[in-house]
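#structure-requests
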Amino acid sequence: MAGSMCLQSRLVSSFVGGDRFIHPSHHPLHHLFRCFPGRKHVSMQLPKTLSGLTDFLFNKRNLDQVSMSRRKPLRPGKVSPPRPVPAHIQRPPYVKSRRPPEVASGAEVHDERGIECMRSSGRLAALVLEYAGTLVKPGVKTDEIDEAVHQMIIDNGGYPSPLGYGGFPKSVCTSVNECICHGIPDSRSLEDGDIINIDVTVYLNGYHGDTSATFFCGEVDDEAKKLVQVTKECMDKAISICGPGVEYKKIGKTIHDHADKFGYGVVRQFVGHGVGRVFHAEPVIQHCRNNEGGRMILNQTFTIEPMITLGSYDPIMWDDNWTVVTEDGSLSAQFEHTILITRDGADILTQC
């Protein structure tokens, strides 16, 4: 989940080190209730210190109107109730509270067992994301994608990390077209030509695996295809420079330099983050040029998840206090991996 701020993203099981994950069957749900539309123009600024996830990510200001784009503007649909999780499945500590936890201080650095747990949760997250991508077709509701993701995660003994994080009502984030991040799955049907980011985080064996990708729905125009391609390149190039002792700020420079070649915007207000036993930990990984200090540590895990826009990178938040869209209605794309810093560079934990 975006730096995620995601929203403001047991004992070792038989899955650790193995590939025996359960794949789901199709069975959509349509139990829906109303959410109320509305939009807020927000200005967000990164503080020098982390006082809290909410303040860090969402510093709201005046109401304003979204400028119209060539595409039909995204509008809220009806949101179905949160889906149940079997009682035997381990829940993250934050689930009982509607208040997002603070960003945990200190890096997520792991011993051998912790690395195996991270590999297991990361692999399940990757398999779930891969399956979710196959569901992206015109006419499919984002709520149906949420149902499928939820079912596959719990079938494999995991907990969908977004569910209940700071009151987030669903099990996955689905961000369509101009939505930068944290889109809530609802009754809206995908349309031919849409792009959609699906952000999956899995809590398994007491560890989170966090990943996302942007998918094409039907026939997508060349402008959107190029944005998505370059966004993935931004992430891949950033991962390629990682390793022990490398400065975190090189990630932002690498991403920003590549996006600049195509005249794209780089979202500043949402970031990568440490991830492991907690959903969001230090360090904060900025995807833009910055002068923040800190260096990567052997056996550390964190996410890289650039959000790249065709136009303005300034965000507007809807009244649901989660969904964030571009100020000018231009398209936004995102890719994300959880990586492990190794002696030779970085391993991607969230790939099949």
